[in-house]
Amino acid sequence: MSQRSIHSLFKPTSVAVIGASNGNKRAGKGVMKNLLSSGFSGPIMPVTPKYTAVMGVLAYPNIEALPIKPDLAIICTSAQKVPSIVERLAQFGCKVAIIMASGMASQTDEHGNNLLALTKQYAKRYGMRLLGPNSLGMILPSIGLNASLAHVGALPGKIAFVSQSAAICTTVLDWANNKGIGFSSFISLGDATDIDFDELLDYLGRDSKTSAIMLYIDSINEKRHFLSAARAASRNKPIFVIKSGRSHEGVKAAMLHTGGIGGNDAVYEAAFRRAGMLRVNDLIELFAAVESLAHSTSLKGERLVIMSNGGGPAVLAADELIIKGGKLAQLSDDTINELNKVLPNTWSRQNPIDMIGDADHQRYAKTLDILMKSNDADTILVLHSPSILSESVEIATSLIDTISQHPNRHRLNILTNWSGEDSAYLGRKRFTKAGIPTYRTPEGAVRAFMHMVEYRRNQKLLQEVPVSIPDNIPADRNIAKTLLQQALERGQTVVETHQAVDILKAYGLNTIDTWFVSDVDEAVSVANKAGYPVALKVQSPDLLYKSDVHGVVLNLTSDDDVSHAAHSIIDRVHQINPNAKIDGLIIQKMALTAGAQEIRVSVINDPVFGPAICLGEGGSEWDPTRDAAVALPPLNMALARYMVIQALKTNKLRDRHLPLGLDMNALCQMLTQISHLIIDCPEIAEIDINPVLAAGEKITLLDVNMRLHDSPQDNIGRLAIMPYPKELEQVSTLKNGLKVMLRPILPEDEPKHLEFDNSLSDEDRYKRYFGVRSRMTHEEMAVLTQIDYAREMAFIATTTTAEGEELTLGAVRASIDPDNTEAEFAMAVRSDYQGIGLGKLLLEKLITYYKNNNTLYLTGFTMFENRNMASLAKSLGFTVSFDMEEHLIKMHMDLENQGKQAL
User: By C-alpha distance, which of 550, 520, 513, 552 is closest to 534?
Assistant: First the structure.
């Protein structure tokens, strides 16, 4: 990734069109027409040997004849010509090229070289970036650049739209122009062979011209980079995404469209949710989301008031709101009294507010004014149905005036629905021009509102402080990995319940009592000792994994049954497969508990995002990605709770309200432990646990099937989200003898970290934050503790007090740019623990980390008053300089030349 190298994509000062043309229906003519008509102020240079001028602009016969190096080149030729053009452009010094040709991945040149691979090779050799191929191009209205084949331009605005589909681009453009909605950036990725979603999200997430981001996705190539960039961007601005391939057939079509990998739709959904994005299901919802984002302010709350001139549309809106999980605002007595003064006696006197069918512009305006003055609502939805007694345009105009002049207009969101077509069109047009969201139906307006609500809820849920797992719950990766390696050495790729017991116990996961016996006599003896009820199984790899029969289980209730049952099972196996090898029998003591509930948990291996955890109820036709809630590891207790809530909300899991049924804390603990197991053990490909018996606080895994990879796996690369780097934990002793733990920060550290921050003296806080600042909020602390280890790092130093409490003594953190070029650090040490070497220890830890991360530079800034910090940095090898104008001390280290050292 390189933000520097795509700078020219967003801020080009000159453009060359390779393959420019005067011929009708030629891409080279369409691009030239759009460039010349959009108001771009820089030079536009057509390159073609066929014409002296293209559309009146002097043309150049070849790339080498260009008078200057273009920042941006648009290649409008056939696929066969693209590799050589890219090589010549790159050699000439061009920084970014847009490739419009399609089918390059499936074509070869006369030497048998793949066209796309050859193009990428040339571009990479000279450091040039590529957008496409199969791209429609891009539009940047703020600089008057329309470097696209779009049939219309884009209006200026604050929404960025990025799409893998050119057809979706033109459809959205057509609709947005009709609605008067503009864009900060409008980009067609095409096949995304080089510049991809992750780099664009990094740029747009920081772009001051962009307040919201919309994505159309067929497939994702770089899971880690995509999620990391999306998580960072969604903290600052909403990201809405529409994803194709919701069906199996759709996945195939999406793969053919972009050449990407076909992942599971439910796992994509989980990834979007984890990144804080909001998914919309179709273009209608996408348009509604664009409408709401274009004109709305951030929601302060979820209370919605509906006002209407008809009861039916108001009821439809209220129904949609409740079905979608929204909240109707409660009208206060004061508000009702004020409304009584302006509304007929027959008005509804509750929310929704039915103003009666003859409501004119004055009644609408007065009602809206009362609601905007009250503190009853966060959003107001104004509905209007056509009526011979009222003029819809006049009402719209009156409402626009009321809103524009109201002192509370920035505190509330106002949404409108003018139902109908011909009679409502002009009213909707007035609202659009005034920047007020308007919709064709009551339900559409409510769905747009709920998009904003869901985004707000998702952000809050992702910022929850997780509860720590109790210290007495084990997580012994060494035991688990040893047992898994032993299984693989035996050539075993499937591990059943009785073999998985010790692996699961290493992570505090409870299974039923299991015994493996070699013959019927031993089975009788063990079953008698075990007590009843028990289950008797046959263990036969040939039968279980090489035929259509998946095993025979018989539940026993008395000792007289055991011998007969065992022989019956063996006879049945040989009837099905006379050559089956019977290795032995398994006796399992059943964990039957009255009032418990059976659920099912699986871990699947998605081709795009890797391991994914599934939670549902199971069944013979169970498809984990259809019938379960899905989440990506790593999970903590808060994220596990979010998963359980999603499962209950979507009826993938039903709380049967049994006496010893679902316990939220116990379920979350089990899911978190399974997440730890999957992260620590790359040997595990998939797990199916069916059933899991939930009996209140006791969770028992009854039947486990664990499938192993038959070859070594890249543990870090297989995970979509970088897990907590436990290997970076370090115990050190300070010069006063105090033993401290240095480790990366965790989300669970928020309460202790807030206590640490509050412990700093006024002087230390002033130095740390470059001025006086108030107490940290929960949202600010969430940003500091819930970090993405793939792009930032924070080390804390902790010690254990005499009372057994963990105490945070100091912290150092640094955020890195997407290029991994420079990390900027900041540090603080608890005021009463300074002068004992803690700061040096923390900064050395950070230096070592970024050296091993291959980061080029580490920099930091401190105030003139903080000379101790500057002295420490200088002693560790930083170059220290003084900025007299800003009154700051700059500390800079060239990590590349400091040498590498092991952690």
Answer: 513
**Whole-number Å distance between alpha carbons of 795 and 814:** 9
Rounded-to-integer distance, Cα 336 and Cα 342, Å: 10
Average pLDDT of the chain is 89
Check whether 901 has a pLDDT greater than 90. no
Q: What are residue 694's DSSP bridge partners?
A: 597, 699
Distance CA 289, CA 241 (A): 10
**Closest Cα to residue 192, out of 106, 133, 141?**
133
Rounded to whole angstroms, the Cα distance separating 154 from 172 reads 10
Q: Which residues lie below 8 Å from residue 43, measured CB to CB, with a gap of 6+?
A: 14, 15, 68
Per-residue pLDDT reduced to its tens digit, 324-341 = 999 899 999 999 999 999
With tokens 């280290």, the residue in question is: 893
Please choose, from the candidates 64, 42, 63, 50, the residue with its C-alpha nearest in 3D space to the C-alpha of residue 21: 50
Place of tokens 């963990």: 806
Confidence band of 903 (pLDDT split at 50, 70, 90): very low
pLDDT in tens, 563-615: 787 888 788 777 777 777 777 777 766 666 667 899 999 999 999 999 999 99
Residue 635 has pLDDT above 60, yes or no: yes
CA-CA distances (angstroms) from residue 644 to 363, 461, 554, 614, 664?
A: 47, 12, 32, 10, 8
**C-alpha to C-alpha distance for 39 and 788, rounded to whole angstroms:** 41
Reported as half-sphere exposure (CB side, CA atoms, 13 A), residue 19 has a value of 24
What is the pLDDT, as a whole number, of residue 592?
A: 61
Average pLDDT over residues 708-722: 85
d(CA 446, CA 455): 14
Quote the pLDDT of residue 257: 47
Tell me which residue of 778, 776, 812 sits closest to 796, measured CA to CA. 812
- Contacts (Cβ under 8 Å, ≥6 apart) of 898: 847, 851, 877
Please tell me the predicted confidence (pLDDT) of residue 516: 74
**Rounded CA Rg of the chain:** 32
Whether 525 shows a pLDDT value over 90: the answer reads no
Q: Is 884 exposed, middle or buried (0-12, 13-18, 19+ CB in 10 A)?
A: exposed
| Residue found under tokens 């970014």 | 96
- Residue 781: which pLDDT band, with cuts at 50, 70 and 90? very high
Single-letter amino acid, residue 119: T
- The token pair at 743 is 């480790």
DSSP 728: G
Q: Which of 80, 76, 82, 81 is nearest to 29 (CA)?
A: 76
Q: Which two three-digit tokens encode residue 881?
A: 């300089």
Query: CB neighbours of 358 closer than 8 A, spacing ≥ 6?
Result: 309, 387, 389, 390
> Which string of b and e fits 341-355 if b means at least 16 CB within 10 Å?
eebeeebbeebbbbb
User: Is 50 exceeded by the pLDDT of residue 543?
Assistant: no
Question: What is the reported pLDDT for 284?
Answer: 80
DSSP string covering 623-637, please? -TTTSEEEEPSP--H
H-run or E-run covering 364: helix 361-373
- Residue linked to tokens 């979007």: 272
The pair of three-digit structure tokens given for residue 407, joined into one six-digit string: 């002192």
State the Cα–Cα distance between residues 10 and 141, nearest whole angstrom. 11
The predicted model gives 736-751 an average pLDDT of 95
365: Cβ–Cβ under 8 A, 6 or more apart, which residues? 398, 399, 401, 402
Structure-block tokens of residue 851? 């050296």
pLDDT in tens, 160-175: 999 999 999 999 999 8
Residues 197 and 224 sit within 8 Å (Cβ to Cβ)? no
